[in-house]
Amino acid sequence: MKIILFVVMVGYTSLPVILYLFPGILSLVIFSHLERIPYFVDLSRPEALLSHTCNFYLNTEKGITVGVWHTLPASQWEGAVGKGLEWYQETLRDGSPVFVYLHGNTGTRALNYRVGLVKVLSAAGYHVFSFDYRGFGDSTGTPSEAGVTHDALYVYNWVKKQSRGPVYLWGHSLGTGVATNAALKIQEQGSVADAVVLYAPFTSIIDLLGNNSLVEVYKTFPGFKQLLWKTLQKNKLKFANNENVKVLESPLLILHSEDDDTVPFTMGLELFRISLQAKKERNRDFPVKMVTYRADLKYDHSFVYLDPHLDDVVRNFLQNL
After folding, report:
1. pLDDT score for 10
2. If we measure between CA atoms, which residue out of 217, 175, 190 comes closest to residue 301?
3. 195-199 vs 167-172, strand pairing mode
4. Torsion on CA atoms 52, 54, 60, 62, rounded to nearest 10
5. Which of 173, 204, 250, 257 is catalytic?
6. Is 173 a catalytic residue?
7. What average pLDDT does range 271-290 have in this prediction?
8. The one catalytic residue among 127, 260, 275, 300
9. Which of 110, 165, 231, 283 has its CA 20 to 30 A from that of 24?
10. Alpha helices by DSSP H, the chain
């Protein structure tokens, strides 16, 4: 019995010790970029998963190359057969709206639910640019909050320069933090993102970690919360959606499922409340809307693309801008 108790105590205290000695591990866990699922997918050949899609690469800064998929809107499908990168870029002048899709942690742009969402948006008439941040998929470098935000901003600016239509940001899960960060950077440049869609957003990364079942076990561990906060600071990780939406000037649509078991539904509600309050206090008139999905629909954290009315939800919001 004493041996068992000793093993349990050693196991229990090992996580705080590891975080203290190796703070970079927390960044690896949060981004989980080394888990490059799905396996055995050639990201340079998206046609195996997505029709009417062209792969290319952008150098977002010196030494950093990110892999990007450009998926065409339905209006361009017929003419896409056999066409190359230059033709795809020319289609951006057709005036169709564009989504820059910012995915969450783990895996690549080829994950099934990411591809599923791109298919829905493409069929609904949008150009979609889905890419892997630095360190993810076939992109070079190592992710950090500043780095992935820079990648998103670069892709957005590149698309905005090429396109004659509005350009929207769509962030999912961890990508919601990237989306609001990028939207604020766009404002700092003197512009405003045409709209921001946040699917399954969290309030902040510290709040999200605090909700993790493993972290819950350490709530009574002396100083653990302070250790976690200091470790996040060392990694320069905040992803503070709750702060960002207070100054966001873009139209905002929040989507969240009540049965989300990764990011609590209450966090989406809290962001919606903060956004409405900030809008009222600053006397702004841009739209802020939240769409919730019942638990019995079982869309969970990643499967809102299964909603047969998703294209209408998005279109109705954007048409009222």
Report:
1. 47
2. 175
3. parallel
4. 170
5. 173
6. yes
7. 93
8. 260
9. 110
10. 2-21, 24-31, 85-90, 112-123, 145-162, 174-188, 205-210, 213-216, 224-234, 241-247, 265-281, 310-319
Provide the token pair at 177: 């933090």
What pLDDT was estimated at residue 219? 67
Q: What is the pLDDT of residues 94-103, one digit of tens each?
A: 999 999 999 9
Place of tokens 């470790």: 231
CA angle (229 as vertex; 255, 8 as ends), nearest 5 = 100
Contact between 155 and 100 under an 8 Å Cβ cutoff? The reply is yes
Annotated catalytic residue, options 52, 127, 150, 301:
301
> Is 150 an annotated catalytic residue?
no
Secondary structure of residue 96 in the 3-state scheme: coil
Residues in the chain: 321
Handedness of CA 201, 155, 111, 235 (dihedral sign): negative
pLDDT of residue 6: 43
Q: What pLDDT score was predicted for residue 26? A: 85
The answer to whether 261 is a known catalytic residue is no
Instruction: Write down the pLDDT at residue 55.
Output: 97
- Write down the mean pLDDT value for the chain: 91
Q: Distance of alpha carbon 42 from its chain centroid, rounded? A: 22
